[in-house]
Amino acid sequence: MICGVGCRRGLDPALLWLWRRPVATAPIQPLAWEPPYALGVAQRNSKKTKKKKKKRKEIKGFGLVGGSVMITQPSHETHVLCVGTSRLDEMGEVYSMFQGRKSTSLSVALIVLSFEQITCLDISSGGGLGVSSSTDGSMKIWQASNGELRRVLEGHVFDVNCCRFFPSGLVVLSGGMDAQLKIWSAEDASCVVTFKGHKGGILDTAIVERGKNVVSGSRDGTARLWDCGRSACLGVIADCGCSINGVAVGAADNSINLGSPEQTPSEREVGTESKMLLLAREDKKLQCVGLQSRQPVFLFIGSDAFNCCTFLSGFLLLAGTQDGNIYQLDVRNPRAPVQVIHRSGAPVLSLLSFRDGFIASQGDGSSFIVQQDLDYVIELTGADCDPVYKVATWEKQIYTCCRDGLVRRYQLSDL
């Protein structure tokens, strides 16, 4: 997964430090600064006459590491350069114009967590805690409001590819390149359960309902269902013969036939009935199976390897590919996609259902929000060319993790 921009295939990206200038009607003037005391400057182009000087507006520096530069909300009207200080409690508010419509306000803050790549993150159900994993084999639990470190979870060998909170918000599930699936206590940082059985690195996980069962997808080509109470594997849901880069579990619409199980399900399976399991595969296939029945629902062939997937409803889903395509499919008629969204050729690394639309992140550092009731796309910028691996939300707050070791928090005030 994530060829050319990620860590899971072990490739060394070569284009991550290239400067990417936003599309502009006039070039951005260079900003002179001495870290860590520098303020961003917003430049607004004047359309009346070229002789008039450009208006400048100072905005407060964000919670950035000194010397870092980010471009926030570039548009045809406004360009913002922000050079921040090392303080985490500072926050700047940016107002951007979208095609001449009403401004959308964003507050952006950065949380410094690691000098390593942050491969995944999640926010607890109450919004108070965040968890992130990195390439040094550790995970960190931190205060979502200010990034204060609360716990360090150590026990995986090599990279930790995925992490997520259980619905309780007090327990964490993780999977790593050591082929181990672990459950942790967020209160005392202890590892309470370790699942073994995969023969390759675990690339993604999903939690079934309240969390008595979990699902994992691995580089060994299998998706497995686990019993958390007994630390046992309840069965192999699918054997694809290639890496499973992403998994998602969703409740099926009543009109969808999931089939009947060939064998009586284990009494340890809780909440698997009427559930679909979606598998994003390396061989350009998107597979859907009944979680309890193990019967195939559909198999869709895309343009390139599928990296991630998510459900929008009981019959609508999204899946992102390595060549930048986002497929929206209807499970009731999966032969032809409802629509295909393509913004760039960079790999789609994360997809998340959000209100009436979704949030996506890509390997070129871009993240964006698509909503059905809006005829424009909201860009969440700041990562420059570093890939944004994961997106998480809580209410109006959006969190992203990036290869530069930073977690960015976006506060949407009027969306």
TrEMBL record:
Domain of life of the source: Eukaryota
Keyword Repeat belongs to the record: yes
UniProt keyword annotation of Repeat present: yes
Residue windows of the WD repeats: 118-152, 153-194, 195-227
Key words, A-Z: Proteasome, Repeat, WD repeat
Pfam family, one: WD40
Any single GO CC term annotated in Swiss-Prot or TrEMBL for this entry: cytosol
Subunit structure: Interacts with PSMC1, PSMC2, PSMC3, PSMC4, PSMC5 and PSMC6. Interacts with SUPT6H.
Membership in a protein family: Belongs to the WD repeat PAAF1/RPN14 family.
Name of the featured protein: Proteasomal ATPase-associated factor 1
